[in-house]
Design goal:
Layout: H1 5-12, H2 15-28, H3 39-51, H4 56-73, H5 79-95, H6 103-125, E1 132-143, E2 146-153, E3 165-168, E4 177-179, E5 191-196, H7 204-209, E6 216-219, E7 237-242, H8 246-258, E8 265-271, H9 280-289, E9 294-300, H10 314-321, E10 327-331, H11 334-346, E11 354-356, H12 366-382, H13 397-400
Parallel strand pairs: 7-8, 7-10, 8-9, 10-11
Antiparallel strand pairs: 1-2, 1-6, 2-5, 3-4, 3-6
Length: 402
Amino acid sequence: MADPEAPLEMALAAHDLAADHFWSYMEDRSVRFLPQQLAPMFFSTLGRVVTGRGDPAGRRAALAVLGRMHRRFGLYPYHGTVVAAAMADTVRRFSGASWEPELATYWERGCRRAIRLAERAAEAMGDGPHVTVGEVVACDAAADDVAVLTVRPMRRLRYLPGQAMPVCTPRLPGQWRWYSPANAPRPDGTVDFHIRALADGAVSPVLVERVAPGELLWLGPAIDVGLSLEAAGEADLLLAAGGTGLAPMRALVEQVAASPINRRVTLVVGSRTLLDLYDAVALDELQQAHADWLTVVLAFSDDRDVEPAVQGDLLSVALYHHRAGQAFYVCGSPRLIEVARERLPVAGVAPDSLHLAATFQRALDSALWVSRQRSARAVEATLGLDTAAEGTGPDRTPRDAP
């Protein structure tokens, strides 16, 4: 059989037209759960899940998006047959010479399987914030390979500091990546994302180097990834941030600043060299604004020109500043998380005080993940962030759409 991804790539090259055809196919058959303005998002995301290629984290991000759309739009089992047929017909129509008849069976079966996976994701996530669209209002170069994107969503995002959400640029439809807001919710609704362009990345270089103010981004639902502040109770905090793992830590510091709970926070920010450190001015301002309870510590793993006190890898410096009773949070690269998972308990950090960001790079512990989502929903409800009342069925889709 021919490569099934080639026809999809051709369809996504004209994804607005392809999505219109996909939506019209279902509309003609009275399957009307999907608002037309969200058809490009649904079509491209479903297509990527069917082909099953890409990194594990990106695939799970796509499933989170499909799961939330499945639940909020009221996608029922009997819709699956028409959705699968619509996908196969759309890919065939836009694939040109790359289409072969046996691909129809591949796409129809793949769609039905993807919809079943989306239903399982929907059950785990429950009700909550919907997908939306945001306009990029600022792109600031924080370093040679790091950009801070400020986004104004069409609908106010519902999230807690420390959570992460899938983000996608229509330049690469259906290719979702996880990013954490770098700020607590603001009155104006804007959100900052810290993005590093990875040398082998398919999406991050586009977000850093090509996306400009005025463009739109697709934004998926925020979910708990193990960095919820509520899990720490009223304990003091030690926050260890590697690279752009600084983003959710910044949001947690803002949450502490607005909280009535008095606690001390040590924020350890790791970088390879002084030149690799980004957001240094903002860190200095953060320290000065909250000097009575916040201590910012820098850690440079490969820079012998800085003072000895800040030389060392992130975890070594963080352990030096760790005190009994602190809740220990770590966010950064998947490699950093894996090392922290092995090293910190051996170094004496109590397992119940250790909070590591999920990387989605390996099979999820389903029970733990589901438990996290239920806990996060309970916290959102107590804080007035519960959005279940906005409606979950097709009769509510005009308000759910961006």
